[in-house]
Fold this sequence. Notes:
Bound molecules: flavin-adenine dinucleotide
Helix content: 25-40%
Largest sheet: 7 strands, mixed
Amino acid sequence: MSGRGNGGQxxxxxxxxxxxxxxxxxxxxxxxxxxxxxxxxxxxxxxxxxxxxDTKITVLEARRVTGGRAxxxxxxxxxxxxxxxxxVAMGCCTNLLQLLQRTGLDAHLHRHxxxxxxxxxxxxCKFAPSSLAPAPFHLAGAIGSxxxxxxxxxxxxxxxxxxxxxxxxxxxxxQLAGQxxxxxxxxxxxxxxxxxxxxxxxxxxxxxxxxMSAVRKVMVDGFAAARGASDVLVPxxxxxxxxxxxxxxxxxRLGVSIRTGQAVSGLEYREGSxxxxxxxxxxxxxDHVISTLPWFSLDKLIANTPExxxxxxxxxxxxxxxxxVHLWLDxxxxxxxxxVLVGTVAQWLFRPPWRDSxxxxxxxxxxxxxxxxxxxxxxxxxxxxxxxxxxLRHLSKDACDARLLHSRVVTDPHSxxxxxxxxxxxxxxxxxxxxxxxxxxxxxxTGWPATMEGAVISGRMAAGSVASxxxxxPIEIDPGLPRGTLARLLIR
Length: 492
Ligand SMILES: Cc1cc2nc3c(=O)[nH]c(=O)nc-3n(C[C@H](O)[C@H](O)[C@H](O)COP(=O)(O)OP(=O)(O)OC[C@H]3O[C@@H](n4cnc5c(N)ncnc54)[C@H](O)[C@@H]3O)c2cc1C
């Protein structure tokens, strides 16, 4: 990647400029590069009837590294690269996984087929969907093994899941999840300990605020619809390495120019082409512009572009915070690589997957993730760390005795858009009324919550919008894991 130079554009070349080098921007670039065969190697997409190397693709990223929200920071005190917040994918994230396969990076995800749940009042239990029973019955035993739920709660969960499988997504849209769940026999304990455990971490928002169709997406597509959907995939290298170095390097090999340190500050349409201005004062002409800016920063960019006054006011979309609590301890507190914590402020515990927890100077690093952390905003960082430390005591005797050596609390108040009923109505498609302007970003109308999978799908949708305006072959979105006969019969 470079911070300089746009490279020469042949007079006949079409130029697609992508604003933002997060996962959406990189996915859009990769999709167009493969589709148009604009790569230098010339080995891809041999059968395409598309524009070939007549298409030039440039990604402009404001920061020094790509990856956007899926990134890392350098902890100067401990001289270590630490992810702002551990990111996990699931087996159902097929567009993300295929992007990593096509770029030869899929080996950098470690697949976990089971999860360990720890509740303060019960013994740890393992959630392991059956590898033999057909979906959705592969979950029956796993739900039965959740010993922190009593018999009555497990019965409620089975009834609620059965009802959810039989209710189409469109019939849930506009309903608050908490209300729907209560109306369908789930009490507050079951909502908190079962539905909340999965939904809050996947949606980054409280069950009482989110749309029920989003909870259905998590529970049906992410768990019930296919075996392997709920497998958890954890990067084995820091995010800044995976999405800040390896992925952009692979995409550049397709002929894409990725320019970091290039914040786009202006956008207008003049004499048949879009003109972008960067913070350094450079102007770049484009036939197509794909914005993958997040919902909270797009309005600012287009406010002074009269041609774009037809676009919505996306800053009305509310955000939800996720907090990573980074802990350096004097001892190992668990050998498990990841733990789901139920009934505590701490929700997930991760050990860095690229080594055991022990750091070079003999300390042990763990990360705790708290989704929907707006609730804890009033706590000081110190108080939050103390709360988390006391939550971890339920893990082991060593966790009770562990001494805290160093900590960092990282909260991104705009981690994800809050997937509330009214927000669903504001999510735009990738195509806009303007033939030269297209939208990507995890927040557009992908049908997914704010996730890496949603971001990759959005990038492919934006690439597809360019393809459609140019009259190229369509760019496909993977429909997800195939459903078996029973799942097709039982799930609406
Ligand atoms: C704390 C946290 C935890 C998360 N956990 C998970 C998880 O476990 N699993 C999961 O799937 N997802 C998770 N997510 C969500 C996931 O990170 C996002 O959905 C995804 O990375 C969004 O990608 P994007 O490309 O749409 O947006 P972004 O990553 O926000 O990319 C937008 C890019 O645009 C750039 N930009 C902004 N302004 C300009 C400008 N003017 N000019 C040029 N470039 C600009 C930004 O620097 C950024 O790189 C988490 C997010 C956070 C914050």
